[in-house]
Amino acid sequence: MPLASRVTDPGPIASSTVQLILIRHGESHHTVRDIASSEQGCLGLTDRGRGQADALRTRFASERRRVDVLLSSTADRARQTAEILRPALGTDTVVTDRDLCELRLGRGDGLPRADFEARYGSFDLVAAPDRPVCPDGESWNDFRNRVHTTLNTLATTYRGKTVAAVTHAGVIVVGFMTLFAIPRPGTGTRIDPDFASVTEWEHDDTTDNWRLIRFNDTAHLRYETT
């Protein structure tokens, strides 16, 4: 009698990918008032910014979008956006991560932009990538390295999960540049994610490759009134 082969069920296979959804916060008071703000100088969302976040929450709810983890930078504009989105994403808490903050402005954080420029001046990021923007602030290379490290840390920490992170335009743009190995700004081309926009990446741990799924998706804001 031939021997019957026995097939052993290996059980569920752990996914090797991370889905990383980067969300820019809604419109904030510091933008409207032209204030230089990274973290400490943040004045939170405007009414319009809350409306933009509400529109994205409605979209996520209609799509039945769920995430395993909801992250936010420590700036109020990002945290407020995350709290508005949280009920639609199926999470109980928002986990804050300071490494998701915008370029750190040190002693200039919270100054009107005209005062910031008068006090600390401006400089060419290409010519002086290691110069801090102001005392206790970051340089361009500091910021690039932080964003690159943060994205790779998220890919490792949340392997096999779907993660949403409410962050800032600078983080989204620099993430795009570092993952596509664009060496510097000033190439004559801009990428500029809108308020409450969605940018999505997928990271495959087996190949250590990133894949861009969508960038600056604002379909939920199509009928926004200003």
TrEMBL record:
GO CC field: cytoplasm
Binding locations of substrate: 77
Catalytic residue positions: 25 (tele-phosphohistidine intermediate), 102 (proton donor/acceptor)
PANTHER family, alphabetized: ADENOSYLCOBALAMIN_ALPHA-RIBAZOLE PHOSPHATASE, BROAD-SPECIFICITY PHOSPHATASE YOR283W-RELATED
Protein name (database record): Histidine phosphatase family protein
Residue runs in coiled coils: none
Domain of life: Bacteria
Database matches in InterPro entries: His_Pase_superF_clade-1, His_PPase_superfam, PGM_Phosphatase
Organism encoding this protein: Saccharothrix syringae (Nocardiopsis syringae)
Molecular function in Gene Ontology: phosphatase activity
